[in-house]
Amino acid sequence: MSTATSVPAAAPKAPRGKQAGKRRLSFPTVLLIIAGALVALSAVRAITGAQDITAAGQIGAALSMAVPIGLAGLGGLWAERAGVVNIGLEGMMILGTFFGAWAGWQTNPWIGVLAGVVGGMFGGLLHAVATVTFGVDHIISGIAINILALGVTTYFAKLWFNSGEAMTKGGSPKQSPPADDIGTVTFPGVSDWLSSIEKHHWFFVSDVAGILGGLVTKVSLLTVLAVLLFALTFWVLWKTSFGLRLRSCGENPIAAESLGVNVYKYKYIAVIVSGGMAGLGGAFLSLVTSHIYNEGQTGGRGYIGLAAMIFGNWRPGGLAMGAGLFGFADALQLRNGGSSVHALLLLLVVLLAVLALWKAYKKAYIAAAISAVVAAGMLVWYLGTDTVPTEFVSATPYVVTLLVLSLSAQRLRMPKADGMKYRKGQGK
Question: Is the pTM of this model over 0.85?
Answer without folding.
Answer: yes
